[in-house]
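Need tokens for this chain, all 483 residues.
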Amino acid sequence: MLQMASLVPTTRGRDKFRAKSIAESKAFYSDPDAATDSLWVAANYAWQTTVFLRNVTGARIAAVANLYGSEFTPTMQQAAQNGEVVEIDLTSLQGFQPTSGLWSPAGHALLRVASNTKGRMDFEGLLIRLSNAPAAPAAAAVFSPQKSASAWVLACAIMRQAISQWSTWIGHVYHQHTTTAAVSFALYGTIEPGVPIGQATTFNRLMADFFLDPSYREQFASALFADGVTDFWSLLPGQQLEATGLDGRVFQGKKREPFGAYPVVTFQRQMRASIDTFTAKVVGRYYATDADVAGDSQVQAWLAAMIDPLGGNLGKINPNNTLSSRAELARLWGDLIQLVLIHGVSHLQDYGARFGVPSSAPAALGSSVLPDPSKSYTTQELMDYAPWTVNSAGKYAFMTAFIGSQPFTQFVPSKGGPTGRPAWDAESPFGRGDAKSRAASSALVTFRKGLTNFLKGFPQDDIIRVLSTNWGQPTRLPRVIDM
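Here are the structure tokens for all 483 residues:
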């Protein structure tokens, strides 16, 4: 059912790509400014569609001041009041009890927007707070470039590690797989009482997790699936961007377009505009009025299954938790399509591959013993602190699979026909019988072409090429089947 267009590396530019990867990895562990910049690129490109950066303004200023205490200086507070300070908040990891000496320390980073030169963002590193709580003994430490440049480099590396861990599991598996699966399963009526995905906080779920995961502790699931976490609406990229409080003008691009210097946000917005056009056309053809949607028993059954705690358990699918209009139905379809298609969209630029280098963002747990913020670390000590994994090559191969195969599902057809070009009308899921079906199928073809042109026209850096010339022909890279 799934047909994918892979990101195919070509031989052209491979040496340049390799050299850039090596240079960046070295800089991340030796240059404090490069280490600070790595947090921006990590938050921008790493693994998921979550918008990590948040503006420190309003009530957040007091919360940040409380977190850092006297380390949060009046100068920093003034910069925050001026709208110049952003945060990366991974303190949610602080509530999880590790069962060994390895863990992802809860991290929080404060950065000041130093400049935006023709779409290139530069940040000043202010503070990083790392915590291993509630590990025994529980501890927290605050780092700054002024205390120790090498300790700051190490703190940035640990933050990248925490971003990688959070992104892989909560930001990626939960946001993009668990939630979309719940919507899909509810749609097909396959969720029944007793299925773990629909009973995230039940005794059966707790027992299943306990036996399947030897490091499992009840508070992990309780925190992850607490009320509000299963709020589908709040997980959507557009809602997450709105919640950040970021000013698009601060991140404007070369042409002064809002968020033009924030690629992952730009990709999301461009793709979503195309999706909304498609879903509005289809829903508009099948439902003449809002009352037709409200009176459709299948649509209402889908709604009930999605929000049922023993069904999809999605909590809230839109502000009103209703499907009573064409706009609400089209929006929900668009939400589902976006979460499926946008999976891995950040890897459309070559930094996705470069970031996969284990030394840049190790996809492994680190030590729960916090480093000393005031110590001057040698290069050897920095390397000793990095995760020691025998299977680094295996981890890199695993990440390459995700980087090399992006799930642009059946919306982009594989090659077909005598010319070898995509058979745009080979699949007509809406049928060709009546005018409604023909119009809906035509809208799908238009959307397919638009999405493919978006991919083909994507600005490339070095070796990552979107869509092979053979339109989906198997390549050397593993191909990931994804929902």
